[in-house]
Amino acid sequence: MDKKQKDKALLDKFIGVYCRKKHRTDGMLCADCAALKDYAFEKLDKCPFDPKPKCKECTVHCYAEPYRTTMKEVMKFSGIYFVKRGRLDWLFKYLMR
Ligand SMILES: [Zn+2]
């Protein structure tokens, strides 16, 4: 699995948890979260940097509103969820790369 695929798998997890817990969906993403995921995947595919820098340190800031705000919320929400469930490894992998 290459790095972009790993990033996608992680995004998928984060958005999945967020939608399930916050929007009370079951297995399927709601329309908003599905759109966010599509958007995030597209951005990832089009990222001009190789290797991709941490978004925080990136100069492009490619996410446009409202996706930018929503994604921050997703990361925070799901980050806390994974910490509570002892899945710090995922979070660290995401933040420390
Ligand atoms: Zn949702």
Molecular structure report:
With 97 residues, the protein is an all-alpha fold. The protein has one domain (3-96). 65% of the residues lie in helices and 0% in strands. The chain is built from four helices and no strands. The protein has helices at 3-22, 31-46, 67-84, 88-96. Helix 1 packs antiparallel against helix 2 and helix 1 crosses helix 3. The longest helix is centred in the first third of the chain and has 20 residues, at 3-22. The radius of gyration is 13 Å and the shape is globular. The two termini are 16 Å apart. The mean pLDDT is 85. Bound molecules: zinc ion. Residues 19, 23, 25, 29-30, 32-33 line the site of zinc ion.
